[in-house]
Specification:
Layout (H helix, E strand, L loop, with lengths): L1 H17 L3 H4 L2 E5 L14 H7 L6 E3 L5 E3 L2 E6 L4 E6 L13 H12 L13 E5 L4 E6 L6 H4 L29 E7 L3 E6 L12 E6 L3 H10 L4 E2 L15 E14 L9 H10 L2 H7 L5 E3 L10 H5 L3 H8 L10 E8 L4 H15 L2 E8 L1 H9 L5 E7 L8 H8 L13 H11 L5 H16 L3 E13 L3 E2 L16 E2 L6
Parallel strand pairs: 1-10, 1-11, 14-15, 14-16
Antiparallel strand pairs: 2-3, 4-5, 5-7, 6-7, 8-9, 9-10, 11-17, 12-16, 12-17, 13-17, 18-19
Length: about 500
């Protein structure tokens, strides 16, 4: 209740200013779930906030089918087996008043390729970008990459003004993007202010600005929607939905899987038979019913219903044969395991409780470690847990799941919580990555998924639906399964006063 009151008061302060200014009263009040993890640097997952706020842009964007469409590039063509030429849009201004040129495009993307860690969209990719005359850049990979245009749609490869890049690899995104909204200021992990950028090259933003509050507590976010102090609310917890006017709640099916990652390198789950025992012990349907109140889909694989082709691929003979070869489960008696997850997604601690009960019923002894994500991520990546529950987007970066599978399950993956390394899986992922988009690529992706599941490196539990809140006075909010879009140029207020 204190958190909810604090949030409401914070938004109310902005509304109070609105009484003296019609412009301020038309500003959008946005409550986001996760605070910045890395000072809003675009070379981290914070890049997706810039995409959802429309403060920064990439060379291309993806349509509903995952096909590349023009953005800061007006067109592109493949020059040879490893090189693509992108024509850079003319007449684009950065928020600091400088002009977009091919040099800025090349410098921004090069900075991403040299970052440590580098963006996961570049896992396994050697990419160089150089200018080509006054109107284009050449992007070249070490090996042929049929999905390079889609890859360049990743928010982590957004283009910023030269002044944003500081010594030591630091990137300051304030006043440095090209989008319809300008990032004016950031107050640590508490809030951010966006103002309309009137010199935007595209459609002028309808709202004069956006006031962002970072609210990890799901109860507080739901309260902000109920009281009318927030216009748009990210990720309302399932347990709060019943207390909200149904007209304000919108379910968006997500390419996001709630998965239990098992540490395959050290501890009890280094034994495949013990991993199989965990898989056999888990009843995901109970978790869907009790924790998500039926507002999720039980998983049969890593890729969910947001990729409708995946279910059909699982009926192939090769897929069925791979799963049939899984190691049999062994009996466990008092085997201790350390189970981790985070509080930022309100359902995950409840999932941990259900999993603890199920695993202990099978003979495991479970110790839970639950923290905010920013305080637990490094431990998870370092292999500090025997098992870790993660809500993971599966096509977040390129619109194609190969990048996610490579990041999480390849020997060189940068997000390999399972500490998993299998040459056969690496070979399957490499094969899928080299095939152009289409049926053959989809079959290769499914083959890689089957090998990962056959090793029990991870146990997919369910596929989430995000529950997005929108007040009665807001219109034009994006409902994006990929979690890239939220506020757009067409998002605005109806003119009604907040409650």
């Amino acid at each position: 209740m204190l958190l909810a009151t604090s949030l409401t008061g914070c938004f109310a302060a902005g509304t109070g200013q609105a009484a003296a200014s019609g412009t301020e009263s038309a500003r959008i009040q946005l409550a986001m779930m996760q605070p910045p993890r890395s000072g809003l640097t675009p070379l981290s997952d914070d890049a997706f906030k810039h995409a959802r706020w429309k403060t920064a842009e990439t060379l291309v964007v993806l349509d509903d089918l995952g096909e590349a469409q023009p953005a800061l590039a007006t067109g592109w063509e493949q020059v040879d087996g490893t090189a693509w030429r992108f024509t850079v849009r003319q007449g684009v201004s950065f928020h600091d008043g400088t002009n977009l040129t091919p040099a800025e495009v090349a410098a921004s993307i090069t900075a991403a390729t040299q970052a440590s860690p580098k963006p996961r969209i570049l896992d396994g990719v050697e990419l160089t970008v150089e200018t080509d005359g006054n109107d284009a850049v050449i992007a070249r990979t070490a090996t042929p990459d049929p999905l390079l245009p889609q890859r360049l749609s990743s928010p982590q490869l957004a283009v910023f003004a030269a002044a944003a890049y500081k010594e030591g690899g630091v990137v300051d995104p304030v006043n440095a993007g090209t989008g319809p909204y300008r990032l004016v200021s950031v107050n640590g992990t508490s809030s951010a202010r966006l103002d309309r950028f009137d010199d935007y090259w595209g459609e002028r933003a309808e709202a004069p600005g956006v006031d962002v509050q970072f609210v990890p507590d799901g109860t507080a976010r739901a309260a902000a929607l109920r009281t009318g102090s927030a216009d748009v609310v990210e990720a309302i917890p399932v347990g709060q939905v019943a207390q909200i006017d149904p007209a304000l709640v919108h379910e968006v099916p997500m390419p996001r899987t709630n998965t239990l990652y098992l540490n395959t390198k050290s501890g009890p789950f280094a034994d495949p038979a013990v991993r199989a025992a965990a898989r056999s012990a888990i009843d995901a349907g109970t978790i869907v019913d009790r924790v998500y109140e039926g507002r999720a889909d039980q998983a049969s694989g890593l890729l969910g219903p947001a990729l409708p082709w995946a279910a059909g691929e699982r009926t192939s003979d090769s897929y069925v044969e791979a799963l049939a070869g899984r190691v049999a489960a062994t009996a466990v008696k008092g085997t201790p395991i350390r189970l981790g997850t985070f509080t930022d997604r309100a359902e995950l601690p409840e999932v941990a409780v259900q999993l603890e009960q199920q695993l202990e019923a099978a003979g495991f002894t479970v110790e839970q470690d639950v923290r905010e994500y920013q305080h637990i991520e490094s431990d998870a990546l370092a292999g500090a847990f025997d098992a870790f529950i993660l809500s993971r987007a599966t096509v977040l970066d390129s619109g194609d799941p190969v990048a996610y599978l490579y990041s999480d399950f390849s020997c060189a993956g940068s997000f390999n919580i399972s500490q998993f390394c299998d040459p056969a899986v690496d070979e399957a992922l490499a094969k899928a990555a080299g095939i152009p988009a289409g049926p053959e690529r989809r079959s290769a992706i499914a083959a890689a998924e089957s090998l990962i599941l056959a090793r029990d490196a991870a146990i997919p539990l369910l596929h989430e639906r995000v529950i997005q809140g929108e007040s009665s006075r807001i219109r034009g909010v994006e409902r994006d399964p990929r979690e890239r879009a939220l506020i757009s140029s067409g998002t605005g207020l109806t003119g009604d006063s907040p409650k």
